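User: Structure please.
Assistant: Input sequence and predicted structure:
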Amino acid sequence: MERLSVSEIINKITTEETFEAVAEDYSFTLKIDAYVPYVCAAVHDGHQFRSELWEKCLHTEYDRWFEEDPCTKEFVKSHPIVIAGCDSRFEYDLNRDPENAIYEDAWGKKLWKTPLSDEEHSKSLDKHHAFYSVVHALISVLEAKFGALVVYDMHSYNWRRWDREVPVVNLGTSNIDNNRFGNWAESWRESLSQLVLPNRVEATSKINDTFQGNGYFLKYITNNFKNTLVLATEFKKIYCDELKELIFPEVVAAIEKQLQKKLQSHAEAFYQTFKKE
């Protein structure tokens, strides 16, 4: 893995080089093993929280972990194109627009003991901007090359805060072009319902049951690229004990192994339908 500036990363994308890199400020990673008509993303996978903010933050390290999406990069690590955030959403949220990316409060609790300085605020937003400049370059090249593609926007969610039964996988589709792509969201949901999970967990899957797909990552790509489908895919945190901060590696491995085939198969079928003539 190389450490590269944003401009160096974008240059490699535009010249269609294969590479694996971390941004020079360590805010995100991008791996491109081959240029293919699908991308895997894990914008909330990161847990880093820069040290100058530690004393200002009212939330504990566990509080932050609880609301992040650990292992979502792990779910898709084997695929040819993977982009993932390294920083915690508590520093800046890549799934929110720039004006709302830095929390004032989080899940009912004030986040900062004292307000961030202009410099601290700008440093976080610069990272947000850099990430999206790379996303824009990447999708531009792929859509021009292939005509259409799918972005699998991987997330997870805490099921214990719900007072009803919730699905193992939720797809948020309220902001995609459902007239064109609704059947592809349904086929992805159907494929995920057939996951075989450890501990006799039934892989239930639903559309817009717990979340509706209102994230900025999905909206940004959808609004800028008319032939790119973003599938916001939320896994219930059955792969960890969210109260003990304990990961179940056998569940993570089972999901990752099965997504190797399921994701590639779905993306290939989509591409064959929408590719350039």
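The mean pLDDT is 96.
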